[in-house]
Specification:
Order of helices and strands: HHHH
Shape: flat
Main location: membrane
Number of strands: 0
Keywords: Membrane, Transmembrane, Transmembrane helix
Transmembrane segments: 21-46
Largest sheet: none
Distance between the termini: 83 Å
Family: Belongs to the UPF0014 family.
Radius of gyration: 33 Å
Number of helices: 4
Protein name: 14878_t:CDS:1
Number of domains: 1
Strand content: under 5%
Oligomer: single chain
Length: 105
């Protein structure tokens, strides 16, 4: 944004102020997000007696990661089936001469 304003002819001090405002907004939104996460974790993991409740912490994977793992396993099995070429038992055809390249007349 700062470069665009300078190229368009705006004074440099105005471009610098806009850049500072954007940087402060990014920093403030990051800080608010981190603070919100910490507050949610504290209220969900600590009880009224100020003890850490490990039973409230789930040991299983979140559903989105479990679905991702399941999808990847399905894709792996599918790709393995495509790469795996079935063995053909050509002994019977070879004994009858059906696979020979010579045409007998």
């Amino acid at each position: 944004m700062m470069t665009g304003q300078i190229i368009s002819g705006a004074p440099i001090m105005v471009a610098v102020r806009y850049q500072q405002i954007i940087m402060f907004m990014i920093s403030a939104s990051t800080a608010l997000g981190v603070l919100t996460s910490i507050i949610v974790c504290v209220f969900s993991c600590i009880d009224s007696s100020h003890r850490l409740r490990t039973d409230r912490i789930s040991s299983s994977k979140p559903w989105i990661f479990a679905m991702k793992d399941e999808l990847l396993n399905i894709l792996r099995r599918g790709m393995f089936c495509l790469w795996k070429k079935p063995k053909k038992d050509n002994l019977e055809e070879e004994s009858l001469g059906l696979l020979s390249s010579r045409v007998e007349t």
